[in-house]
Each structure stands twice: as C-alpha cells, then as structure tokens.
Amino acid sequence: MSLSGPTEFEAVAADDGLAGSGLQGDGNPAPDATAPGIAGRSLWAIAWRRLRRDKLALAGGVVIVLFILAAVFADPLAALYLNIVGRGSETFATAHNTPPRNVLDELTLLPVGAFSGASAKFWLGVTPQAGLDILTNLLYGARTSLVIAGLATALSLVLGVLAGVIAGFYRGWIDGVLSRIMDVLLSFPTLLFSLALVSVSSIITTSSFARYAVIVFVLGFFSFPYIGRIVRGQVLSLREKEFVEAARSLGAGNARIMFREIAPNLVGPILVYTTLAIPNNILGEAGLSFLGVGVVPPTPSWGQMLSDAGGFIQVDPFYIFLPGLAIFITVLAFNLFGDGLRDALDPKARR
Amino acid sequence: MIRFVVSRLIGMVLVLIVVSMVTFLIFQAVPLLAKSSPVYYYIGKAPATPELLQSLTHRFGFDQPLPAQYWSYLAGFFGKSVTDGTSAAVQCPFPCFGYSFRRNELVSTLIGQALPVTISLAVGAAILWLIGGLTVGTLSGLKPGSLVDRAGMTGALAAVSLPIFFTGPVALLIFVYTLGWLPDNNGYVDITQNPVGWFLSLLLPWICLALLFAALYARLTRSNVLETMNEDYIRTARAKGLDRRTIVVKHGLRAALTPVVTIFGIDIGGLIGTTIITETVFNLRGLGTLSIQAIRDLDLPVLLGVTVVAAFALVIANFIVDVLYGFIDPRVSV
C-alpha cells in the first residue's frame, strides 16, 4: 500500500515546516528535476528517494504485494491451479471434504512418495491423514494471515492513535488516566490472557466468525499501548509548535487541531509502526493457531499447518518446511520493508 | 527515593489487583453470559442432579454476588480451606489459588511443580540472549558497515522473522533425530537428579528461545550504540585524547545500554507467557504447558492461577527495573 508513490506522501507533507495553518491548501511541492536552480524537496520526496535506493526494502515490498495478491485472489488462483492439474471439478471446499484417492496410503494415511507426495496433480503434495492439497492450503492460509493481521493492526492503530492523540493533547488528568490504562495493559501477560480469552469465548459460541473476531480483538487490543505511547510522545511536543498556535488563533477547535493539524504529522511513525506490527500479528495468529486456539478448522492457517506437521517431522520434514517458509518469507518481507521505511523517514539517518 | 519506591509499590499492587480482577471477571462472568453455571467448568462435567448443582453452586460460592466472590478469592490467597467438590474440605495454605477439580490437586501444587521448568528455561535463555545480543549489537554499532555488522544484522533480521514453532521442530529434526548429537529424552530432566541431562535437555530450548530475543537485543543495542557514539560528549572525550577503550566502555556503553535494562526487565517478567510456545514445542512441563492443558480442559482455577502468577512476575520485574532505573538515572524519580 505504501508503494503507491511519492504523491500521497507529499500531500501529507504539506503540513511540515511552516505549514499547518489550515489555509495553505494542498499545493503539491513536487520536486522538479528539470527546474533550474535549487528545487525544494519535501521530507517525503527525500524519503521516497532513499527508499528507492534500498534494494532489500524494495524486494520486501514486492513480496508484500505478491502476498496480498495471493490472499485477495485466492479463489481464482486456486481454481486456475485446479484446472491446470486437471482437477477442475474440485473446489476448495470439496477438496477439503473429500480427501482425494490414491494420494494417501490406505494403511498409514501418509502421502505416497517423498516430498509429501508431490506430483503433477498435487504440486506441493498433500497433508498426512486429512489428505488436503498443501498448495491451496497455503494459498488460503495467506488469506487468513492477512485478514487477521490486517484487522488486528487496524484495531490497534485506531485505538492507539485515538488514545495517544487525546492523552498527548489534553495532558492533565486525561493523560494520567489513559497512560495508566496503557501501562496496566502492558503489564498483562498477553499471550496467556489471549489463550484464556479465546478458550473462554468458546464457551459462549464456537462459530468460526466469533473466533476470528476474538483473535483480532486479542491481537489488536493488547498491542495498542505500543503505538499509543509513541503517538502520545509525538503529540506532546507537536502541540507546542507554532502551527498549532496559528491554527488556534484562526479559531480552529480542539478536534480540528488534533485530527487535521497534528495527526497528519504522525503519518511517518504510524506507517513504520504498521509495517512492523503486521508481521508481529502474522506471527501472533500463527502462534495462537499453533497452540490450537487459533482459527477453527477447516479454515486453513499456516500456524495450524505447522502444528499438524509437528507429529510427522521424522516421516517427512517437507510438511513443516512449506508453511514454515511461507511464514518466514512473509514476515521477513514486512520486516525488511519496515526497516527500510524507518531508515528512509529518519531525518538523522546517514546521508 | 523512598517516596519513589513507595509510590511504585502502590502502583504495582494496583496493577495486580486490576489484572486479577479482570481475569476473575472473565472466568466467572463469561459462563453466566452463556447461561451455564461456572460449576460445570470447575468440575468438568454436568452435575448429575439439579440438587447437586445447587449444592455445588452454594459450596463454591457462585450464588454470591461477583464482588463478594472476588473478595473471597483475594482473601483466600493467604490460606483457607477449599472444597474438593465431593466431600472433604482441603486445607489450602498460602499462596492459595484454589483447587483443580480436573486434576484433584491444589493449583499452588501444580504451579509449584511447573515453576522450576519454566525458570530453568527462562534463566538459561536470558543469559544466552543477553550475552549474544549485546555482543553482536555493540560490535555492529561500533563499526557500522563492517563485516560483523552486516552479518550480524542480516542474521538478526532473519531470526526475528522465524517463529519458535518453526525453528524448534527443525532444530529437533537436525540435532536430535538426524545427527543424534543430543539425547531424545522428550522433556525436562530434573537438575537435582541429573545435572548433565538437565543441561542437554534444555540446550535446544534455550538456543531457540534466546535466538529470537538475541536478535531483538542486537538490533536495539546497535542503534543505541550508533546514536550514542555520535553524541557531542563522545566527541569531547575523543578530543581530550582519551583512549578508545575508555571512551567506548566508560562513556559510550554506559549510556547506550541503559535502555536495554528496561527492556530486559520487561522481557524477563513476560517470559512466563512467552515460554508457552517453546515449552509446547519441546514438551517441557512448565507453566506454559500447564496453562495450555488447562485451556484444553477448561480448567479455570488453574488458568486463573497461572495468569495471576504471570502477571505477578511481570509486575515485579517492572518494579525492579523502575527502582534500578531510579538509581542509575536520578532524573527518573522526579
């Protein structure tokens, strides 16, 4: 998403420097390379230039785009694959309900052949016992990862930015209360608590949608204090800046100052936080699924695949490598991109 | 200083009360929301007769209002007699977390059995990651762009992207099943019975757990060292003609590593939660596996007990860090 280019960055950057009066308009100070003399460059233009030179970060960005495409287009991609291998009549759902014949050994229920029984019909083989197609499982697992990690990150962003901006802007007792709440939340044994919440929620309902919602809540809610603290610190210093005073002298209300004047300056740290929070949440979802309190089967999840593979590691390590590699590559890509973004946006970074 | 410590202590107790209250509320109130009695989740099955349900509800105190129940849980912490659900009353000495009807055991006994495993795992891993992370981070930060820096940071980036539930099984596959370098004892070996076996049984769990944290610490240390070494006072020290060792050790590292103290305290405190996955992968019967088992059985007293213990560890660690910090950096206590 952040690859959409420098224009979006620059529009935001209009609030930098002497900006922020709210009257300035969103004139786009795009650097013009052909212009004579010295062209001014916004922070975002500089950041984009730096990012473009960071090959690893760009590679990470490409992988992220592929991951998102795989997750979004899992249905047509799976259909395409099934057609190519001559199993066009199957859908993801039927492939799960009816384990294909002749792929699993009847006695041991293990795939026939090495590499989890990979063949022309099942490119990455099938899972032991259930006999599920590993390739489609991985594909739909990407969707599970992305949806949960994305929603959880969005939840923590909304809560964190709201809490941080309000605490930093109003200070006083409001800040005291919000900061205390965030401190207490950081003292929660998060993973244990998540496990408890998920298991207790299953008393009320066992629907897979409810499970999704609980996982998103657990991952998002317990991580919002991290971004909340960052935002609060930034707002504490931003609220003393001249542009806030200027806006106030023009009659802007608190809400406008907070969300139209101050908030746009937080886009940098928020972007960096987002790209680094998503991989954390991907690992979080995989971890919960690994422990058996993640998404409910038959919804595929990489963590669950790893968990299922654990018992068969001595039979064929292929089962564990495939979902493991999927998690590793995805998380690494997000980390690379996030690191690159942070370096690019850091004004103190090496020239 | 005393005022600072006292205010921190009060804050600590408050946090503990909030954590235990929320945990308690979730476990006691959610079954009510589901229109079923918490009794079910305490004894693990539906009571045979409505009369039995009634009498158990009364005996467990579920007929009292929630605040009263919470107070009795809190007050009972210092010792009380609990019912084992059938007939006799069981004496539950301090620290009392109640009774697990699934396992016919006091929760404090179960926690007491599991604690040495988790502590062995946590302490060993912490030593490893502190040494590894700080060494790599410092060397990288002192010479950015060097071979050590690039190799270290690439490794660290890979390590933070690898979940333990992937590295663990792969490490087992390589070092235990394939190469046979480590014994396949499948679990924890008591240190008092077999120190060597204890060490060998924990070696892979230590390394796998430490790898993740070492990577985070290396990255943190590197950026701190890098930033500190560019400060004006370091330049001043250099201009004074101090030798490099003095500058790095006395002026640079002291400032650069202070933030690491904070993180370390929090991470150590939070380890009871973090070790869950490691314990599951390596089949170590610590607090993590205890809680996982409790979750599978819906054994609420055990789950509540472990959560409170974990929160307690976290809060204590935070407290120690705060006080230490107050000594290292006097500005904090103002």
From TrEMBL, chain B:
Stretches assigned to the ABC transmembrane type-1 domain: 115-325
Biological processes, Gene Ontology terms: transmembrane transport
Cellular localization per UniProt: Cell membrane
CDD domains assigned: TM_PBP2 (cd06261)
Keywords, sorted A to Z: Cell membrane, Membrane, Transmembrane, Transmembrane helix, Transport
Coarse class of the protein's main subcellular location: membrane
GO CC annotation: plasma membrane
UniProt xrefs under SUPFAM superfamilies: MetI-like
Pfam family name, one: BPD_transp_1_N
InterPro entries attached to this UniProt entry: BPD_transp_1_N, MetI-like, MetI-like_sf
PROSITE patterns on file: ABC_TM1
Name the UniProt record assigns to this protein: ABC transporter permease
Taxonomic placement: Bacteria, Bacillati, Actinomycetota, Actinomycetes, Micrococcales
